[in-house]
Amino acid sequence: MIHLTMPLRDGTQIPVPRAPRRRRLGSLRSLLVIVIAVPALVGTVAVPAHGAGTALPGAAVAASESPSQNAGPAGRGGNYMHDANAPWIRPVTAKVTSPYGPRRVICNTVGCSNTFHDGVDFGSACGTPIKAISPGRVTFAGNAGSFGERVIIDHGSGVESLYGHAQTGSLNVSVGQLVKAGTAIAKVGATGVVTGCHLDLKIRISVFVNPGPFLAARGVTL
Ligand SMILES: [Zn+2]
Fold first, then answer.
1. Is 198 a catalytic residue?
2. Ligand 1: distance of its center to the CA of 214 in Å?
3. Cα of 99 to ligand 1 centre, how many Å?
4. What is the pLDDT of residue 184?
5. How many whole angstroms separate alpha carbon 140 and alpha carbon 3?
6. Fewer CB within 10 A of the terminal residue: the chain, N end or C end?
7. CA atoms within a 13 Å half-sphere pointing along the CA-CB vector of 160
8. What is the Å distance from ligand 1's center to 198 Cα?
9. Structural domains in the chain, sorted by start
10. Catalytic residue among 50, 117, 165, 198, which?
11. What is the Å distance from ligand 1's center to 90 Cα?
12. pLDDT by residue for the chain (222 residues), tens digit each?
């Protein structure tokens, strides 16, 4: 190390104080801590419900999920090519117990739902196999906070299906996997913000759309 000196008015040389350099290092270290810590904190912010958030009634707005819990084609290199002749089917045989549209807020220990239900609920018993509604590629399979255990499938042309509240440990597919219409992807559960066992099916074409008309146009009556 070089020890710098500086002259005083009487000509004697004294060492240059090193404190300023230490202070600069200290502030650099603080900056590093901020740069590393802040994104980590942002990444752990709790995820709201089943459509929870600030959406106004009547607005089909996605909940504020983290990108990894909400993976779409764009985020996962999608470009799945869907066969126009491939079938579309019901994910479960049970009837719809809660339609797409405005809905009272549902809360449990995990959180609360939104005032707008952006999917359809099927009242299936826990353990019922959930079938992929059409061929596609899995873009997410894991826990999505208040949406519970969840699978997302990219069907190409920007169409995705999302299956929520599956049973813990029942996810039967992994990201990147190709599925057919009818592939058992998970089992019905009651994870996340729920009042009981059911499947929440959402269809997203950039924004959530009503699965009823979407599937009706493809020969499936819910
Ligand atoms: Zn639902």
1. yes
2. 16
3. 8
4. 98
5. 58
6. N
7. 26
8. 8
9. 5-43 (no CATH), 67-216 (2.70.70.10)
10. 198
11. 15
12. 555 556 666 656 666 555 545 555 445 455 444 444 444 433 333 333 343 333 333 333 334 455 555 555 544 445 788 888 899 999 999 999 999 999 988 888 888 888 899 999 999 999 999 999 999 999 999 999 999 999 999 999 999 999 999 999 999 999 999 999 999 999 999 999 999 999 999 999 999 999 999 999 999 999
Beta-carbon neighbours within 5 Å of ion ligand 1? 119, 121, 200
For residue 137, report the distance from its CA to the centre of ligand 1, in Å: 22
- 48-70 burial, b for 16+ CB within 10 Å, e for fewer? bbbbbbebeeeebbbbebeeebb
